[in-house]
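To start, one record:
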Amino acid sequence: MFMEKFKEIYDGYMLVLVVFVGLFLLLRDVPLLRKKKLRRDMKIAKVLGYTYIIAGIVLFIIVKMYRG
């Protein structure tokens, strides 16, 4: 039941949105944090950016493969 509801919510639009958030973190926030010399925050932003991109794509693949 959970997977059916999740499949309704997580479509192509949601994939684009999640990947965009990840790219925004990597391309906008990381350079700003580096410029302000906030190294710990920069590393966290990098990890979150890559996590958003990878997890977004993996979740989309899982939803497309699910046949329930």
